[in-house]
Amino acid sequence: MDKDVEAARTRRPRVRRRLLTASVAGCVVLGGVLTLLPWGGSAGGPSAPAPGARALAAVTTGVPAALPDLAVLIGEREAHLREHPDDAESWAVLGAAYVEQGRRTANPAYYPRAERALRTALRAKEPGVEARSQALGGMAALANARRDFPAGRQWAERARQLDPRRWTVYPPLIDALSGLGEHEAAGRALDRLAKLGPGPAVRARAAAVYRDRGWREDAAASLSDAAADAGAPAERAAYLERAGQLAWERGDREAALRHFQEAVRTDPDQRAAQAGQGRALAALGRTTEALSAYRAALARQPSPQYALELGELYDSLRLPEAARVQYDLLRERVRAAAAGGADEELVLGQFEADHGDARAAVRRLRAEWRRQPGVAVADALGWALHRAGRHEEALRFAVRATGGTPGSGVRSAPYAYHRGMIEHALGREGPARRHLREALRINPYFSPLHVPAAKRALAELGEPSVSGPPGR
């Protein structure tokens, strides 16, 4: 059992108080799920739900769905809507399924289809509260999947105003607020969510908020509970992947790898966990296996982020041509995302800062910051400014990323590394030494390229002088 989870067990009453105050609502939530069985389905009999029914229950309750089940659900709803084009609820379900399919496959071509289906549901003459709420929530989820967090917040707020007692309207609102760096507001939305609907999906959402606040033990415990109580393999695998990411962020390579491997065993289509395996295996020195894991993830989910990570791994192995192939793939996927209305400017800016045109990265990320000033954007913009030689301005953003945002306390090795390197460039030796050491203490394996750079910078800084001025 992970150290953070063991420690959290002793603190579980606090977590339970946060999440289980609404346990009396469990029967209500269960009843809500049961009403979402597909049209024409049978409520009786002990047989397992059909694939379309499983995917329907997932997409209408905001939990991950298996890709084969999603394909069945999409086919069923498309066929149904050809015969019944005025069925607003089916349009809403189809739109939500397209969003999930696009997210799971990193294929932004699904997003315009999702938008058309969801807007069709909203334009229906008498969609009803159920269909309208689902469609508004679907639009919020779509905006978040496209990394358009301002729009995600607007759609989620509309869904909440329509039906504030429906717990499924709050997860996309929390995601949007977190993406905008509004962590205190995200916490308040989580409190409202916890009062309306307990269960694994709520615990997983709470874990993300806890992680952003720096409460890693609570986050790990919540994800452990969510994975244990998940109702379907795809859902459990998604929570295991997030638990693996938490373990990775704190530098526990072995625990991260175990979580990622179990996620893939549970759901072979869990490509985020395959990329996570690549991360952990590279840190363990198992380079050949790491390359294979990354390639497998990219073959079925060609995410720009995975391409950047694999390219940097190739760079660290002194294989520049192989790295260039991945960087070209990254650019191609960013262009495809833009065609589908998705925003991948963050990962493109991160790439340009380290491997391309730093000034172009600054322009991209400054525009992104004006639009949605989240913590990840603050870190990326600060680093791009540093790479472009604008260290003083860079430091202001690095400070925001490492604890200068109200409600945020995320402990990130890359963020601490970026701040330390900026301070090193400014000649602020004491803070630079402190933040570079912090980065390596949080996760000594956070990047195959930047960990060696952090160690070199610390060697250059040396030990502090006992006669040096304070604060240096």
Report on this structure.
- The structure is a single chain.
- The chain is mainly α and 472 residues long.
- Among the domains are: 21-38 and 50-178, Serine Threonine Protein Phosphatase 5, Tetratricopeptide repeat (Alpha Horseshoe); 361-461, Tetratricopeptide repeat domain (Serine Threonine Protein Phosphatase 5, Tetratricopeptide repeat).
- 74% of the residues lie in helices and 0% in strands.
- The protein is built from 26 helices and no strands.
- The protein has helices spanning 3-9, 12-19, 26-34, 51-60, 67-83, 88-105, 110-123, 128-145, 149-162, 170-179, 183-196, 200-213, 216-229, 233-249, 253-266, 271-283, 287-300, 304-316, 320-339, 345-355, 358-371, 375-387, 391-404, 413-425, 429-442, 450-461.
- Helix 7 runs antiparallel to helix 8 (128-145) and helix 14 (233-249) packs parallel to helix 16 (271-283).
- The longest helix is centred in the C-terminal third of the chain and has 20 residues, at 320-339.
- The two termini are 41 Å apart.
- Residues 3-46 have low confidence and may be disordered.
Overview features:
globular; mainly alpha; Serine Threonine Protein Phosphatase 5, Tetratricopeptide repeat; single chain; 472 residues
Low-confidence stretches: 3-46
Helix content: over 70%
What is the number of helical segments per DSSP (H or I, 4+ residues)? Answer: 26
- CATH fold title of the domain at 21-38 and 50-178: Serine Threonine Protein Phosphatase 5, Tetratricopeptide repeat
The CATH superfamily of the domain at 21-38 and 50-178 is known as Tetratricopeptide repeat domain
- State the major sheet: none
Number of strands: 0
Radius of gyration (CA) equals 23 Å
